[in-house]
Amino acid sequence: MKTLGKVLIGIVVVIAVVLVGGWLMLRRPDIPYATLEAKYASPTSRYVELSNGVRVHYRDQGRRDGPVLVMVHGFSANLETWEPWVQRLGGDYRIISLDLPGHGLTRAPEGFTLPRSGFVDIVDQTTRKLGAEKFVLIGNSMGGGVTWNYALAHPDRVQGIVLVDAAGWPREGDAKDDGPVAFKILRHPVGRFLVKDLDASAMTKAGLRDAFEPQPDLATEAMATRYVEMARAPGHKDIILGLMSSFASDDAASKEKLSKIAVPTLVLHGDTDKLIPVAAARKFGDAIPGSTVIIYEKTGHIPMEQVADKSAADLAAWLRAKVFPLKP
Predict the structure, then answer these.
(1) For burial by CB atoms within 10 Å, which of 22, 59, 198, 216 has the most?
(2) Structural domain of residue 75, as residue ranges?
(3) Residue 73 and residue 220 in one domain
(4) Taking the alpha carbons of 191, 139, 311, 42 in that order, is the dihedral positive or negative?
């Protein structure tokens, strides 16, 4: 029996060594901002310093004297996601897109943490710095949540809002126990510690393929590499993982809360979205007075990329009809 016990202990030790060794082999270091900027910044990339020490990466494109559209990306994404719309709408509108802290090429001070209203404040400071006092605010996924929260906090600054597969409505049942497996892991402190410095290539590519359902091949290797490498910018992982631990029920959307939004609202959503069910779009449409809801068939979580022509045309038509109607 003693011999068997020693054998079992030996097996457990070997397994532990293999697991720890494998975990260490999968860990990846940060990538310096200079390296990331050299690879991913474009000729239109600009930077602005905010009062909290955040250095925001943004692009200010399109028609300089046109009505202003401000675009806010989703969780783990960056401003590149809006380029299909910039290309299609830039002839008529001034388009400002930005990277939120923890994303893209935006830098934050060491130890930077986001208060509950942090992203709303980032959008507010950035647009004021750029002289955009009135604008249509557009957000995808997490950026959609930023958008409707901004409309509630600063109703005097928004001329309209566009919610693209927007976050905010809690799922049926326990919101923390539903959703993609990756999000379940990230919501747990042990899970966040274990995955913080790991190579996220496989998980990221799988998530992107899900985002383009039912056309997963639209998630290219280059796209997955961009997501993975930008997530390895210094400080990004701490901010992103911190977001996963800051869920609060009072942050959730409700009909009572959203009924206070009085500006024109467009809700766009893909009917095969695996991350945010299409039912959320209908809830937004029901809660916000006078809103327009458009559901795209066979489209996933990022219609501005997946069905760029159709979604940009729908946005342009809505802007002309609801926000910037032509004078007689």
Answers:
(1) 59
(2) 33-323
(3) yes
(4) negative
Is 100 inside any structural domain?
A: yes
Identify whether residues 73 and 8 lie together within a single domain: no
Q: What is the pLDDT along the chain (328 residues), one digit of tens a residue?
A: 556 555 455 444 444 333 333 333 334 688 999 999 999 999 999 999 999 999 999 999 999 999 999 999 999 899 999 999 999 999 999 999 999 999 999 999 988 888 767 999 999 999 999 999 999 999 999 999 999 999 999 999 999 999 999 999 987 654 444 445 444 445 445 444 444 455 567 888 888 999 999 999 999 999 999 999 999 999 998 888 777 655 444 478 999 999 999 999 999 999 999 999 999 999 999 999 999 999 999 999 999 999 999 999 999 999 999 999 864 4
CB 234 within 8 A of CB 109: no
Residues 101 and 226 in one domain: yes
Give the three-class secondary structure for 52: coil
Indicate whether 161 and 43 sit together in one domain. yes
Domain count, the chain: 2
Whether the bond between 328 and the residue before it is cis, its omega within 30 degrees of 0, is no
Residues 3 and 111 in one domain: no
Which residues is 56 bridged to in the sheet? 48
CA distance 196 to 238: 8
Angle between helices 201-211 and 221-231 (to 10 degrees): 120
Enter the pTM of the model. 0.85
Residues 6+ apart with CB under 8 A from 257: 152, 287
**Cα radius of gyration rounded to whole Å, the chain:** 21
Structure tokens given for 282? 């209908």
